[in-house]
């Protein structure tokens, strides 16, 4: 696979992106095209070559004169910065010179640029950011995690279909449990959007288990959690905040009580294991499902390991021909057939 990486995207670009590309070509058979300011990329490759031995021929650079910054308005940046590193990445994929696009930059802009150059899969109304979310037994998929804040029931139906395919083919869950995120498990609870979405999902052949509450998500009650982007993003941000708060509370408690110091090494080991299971860097990036070519968007604070894992995930997505499967499944559930 040939992977187009936005070398200039993210808070720690281009260093971590280029190191991530090097780690990828060292560990896999994939090739990486680094897109951005060529002089910067070549200087970084020279720097990292002193630390790593890697097959230099598997990494190439393509120049892009513009960079979409993290704080820029997504739609405006996509329209006006035609030679941004994101835009050039997508053009490479659209022209079949690369198989997938990966960026750790402005997520809204990455989505806007992908829609502009790669277009939607036929039949898909709205692409969706699908974030792997840690649970007590592994990970589930949140669809949507922020791409679409105002939705209709038929949009959430498509989100469920696309998330179900990803959970089966990428996460390896044979029969994913699909649920609607609501304010109660009872089918009478929720707003108009969740109530109507549940009615649609009942008519499909998905393994639909009904509603779940926010607290059920980390308990692994569902493998595909369906919601609009507003609710999904609030869930993610709240969960991140709780995890950080709990970690700080534990550290402060240990520091304030000498009796806890003896247990500190064991607590640290336990926390390390928990962190590994919930570490975003192991996931790398979230797929933008519904776009006509593989697109993965990573966190702006990603490190090189996250970049590597995002590139590997994008390659797996392309190898499994996920978009073709999405197109086929979406065609079965057009609104006139349910």
Question: What do these coordinates show?
Answer:
The chain is of the alpha/beta class and 338 residues long. The protein has 2 domains: 155 residues, Isopropylmalate Dehydrogenase; 163 residues, Isopropylmalate Dehydrogenase (3-Layer(aba) Sandwich), CATH 3.40.718. It has 12 helices and 11 strands. α3 packs across α5 and α4 packs parallel to α5.
Compile the SSE list and pairings.
Layout: E1 2-6, H1 15-27, E2 31-36, H2 38-49, E3 59-63, H3 74-80, H4 85-94, E4 100-103, H5 107-117, E5 128-134, E6 139-143, H6 153-169, E7 178-181, H7 192-202, E8 208-212, E9 224-226, H8 229-256, H9 264-278, H10 280-283, E10 286-289, E11 295-297, H11 304-319, H12 322-332
Parallel strand pairs: 1-2, 1-4, 2-3, 4-11, 6-9, 7-8, 7-9
Antiparallel strand pairs: 5-6, 5-10, 10-11
Helix pairs in contact: 1-2, 1-11, 3-5, 4-5, 6-7, 6-12
